[in-house]
Amino acid sequence: MDKETLSTLEGTAKRIRRGIIEGVYHAKSGHPGGSLSIADILAYLYTKEMHINPQNPKDDTRDRLVLSKGHTAPALYATLAECGFFSPEELKTLRKIDGRLQGHPDMKNIPGVDMTTGSLGLGISAACGMALVGKTEQKDYRVYAVVGDGESEEGQVWEASMFASHYKLSNLCVILDWNGLQIDGPVEKVMNPTPHDKKLEAFGFNVISIDGHDFEQIEAAFTAAKACTDRPTAIIAKTVKGKGVSFMENQVGWHGKAPNEEEYLLALKELQ
Ligand SMILES: Cc1ncc(C[n+]2csc(CCOP(=O)(O)OP(=O)(O)O)c2C)c(N)n1
């Protein structure tokens, strides 16, 4: 990856992180930690990898993304605003009673949202359905599903995985956000779902493990996923919960809490 592309991606990811902070601060609630951990991956997917059309959000040929860990909607909204699906100003209406940007993604009202999610474990199944339709109807689109590591404790994630490999859904790419923390503590202490690589391999996935904040590795992983044509791919992305805001990094308390004014200003300063 050349220097210019890298610096553009870094700038995009920073704006996405600022959008996350703006949204959660103005809502006075929401989920910053797991939103910040996926900002680099979403920045890459939406600006480099996915075929999307902000002028026609429901374009049938578009690639689809299902944010299975739907509580991290602030990251998806900030990314969609960055791509021009709606104005970045609207991010300040997150969770407002008359606004479109609900606490969890709503495909009926928000341009660019491909699936309504929030109940953990369900989104990956919807992504499998979309991928199966794409295969059956011989369409070229790809489907991406972002799944949380805490979310991977849901049994349905594994049913969906079995389905994905049974139907050889090579147009499906699951991204497991391995940030190590869930709502109430370290994932491995709450209900240990590891080793993800061996389990996903046993379930029939092409498994790729990366640093989810390294754009070179992110690029290589999505390129390898596209090149794999006989089974679904799972990218296990090692990330830092709260990435980019020093006092939020690796702090379980920032899973679902809004910054106060002082913390908000400090976060924005760090993300300049
Ligand atoms: C079925 C279901 N059970 C419980 C919740 C409440 N909940 C919201 S976020 C969360 C923790 C998710 O952890 P993880 O998937 O690791 O997300 P991240 O750390 O990336 O934010 C839980 C239990 C939910 N949304 N859905």
- CATH class division: Alpha Beta
Number of strands: 7
Tally of separate domains: 1
Structural class: alpha/beta
Anisotropy-based shape = globular
Largest sheet: 5 strands, parallel
CATH 4th-level superfamily = Thiamin diphosphate (ThDP)-binding fold, Pyr/PP domains
Helix percentage: 40-55%
CATH architecture: 3-Layer(aba) Sandwich
Give the SSE order as H and E letters: HHHEHHEHEEEHHEHEH
Provide the β-strand percentage band. 5-15%
Bound molecules: thiamine diphosphate
Q: Using only CA atoms, what is the Rg?
A: 17 Å
Cross-sheet strand order for the largest sheet = 1-2-3-7-6
CATH-defined topology: Rossmann fold
Number of helices: 10
The CA-CA distance between the termini, in Å, is: 23 Å
Mean pLDDT rating: 98
- Uncertain segments of ≥5 residues (pLDDT<50)? none
Could you give a quick summary of the protein structure above?
The chain is of the alpha/beta class and 272 residues long. The chain is built from ten helices and seven strands.
Key features?
272 residues; alpha/beta; Rossmann fold; 5-stranded parallel sheet; two-stranded antiparallel sheet; 41% helix; 12% strand; globular; binds thiamine diphosphate
Q: What does this 3D model show about the protein?
A:
The protein is an alpha/beta fold and 272 residues long. It is built from ten helices and seven strands. Helix 6 links the parallel strand 2 (143-148) and strand 3 (172-178). Helix 1 (3-27) packs across helix 3 (39-49), helix 1 (3-27) packs across helix 4 and helix 3 packs parallel to helix 4. The radius of gyration is 17 Å and the shape is globular. It binds thiamine diphosphate.
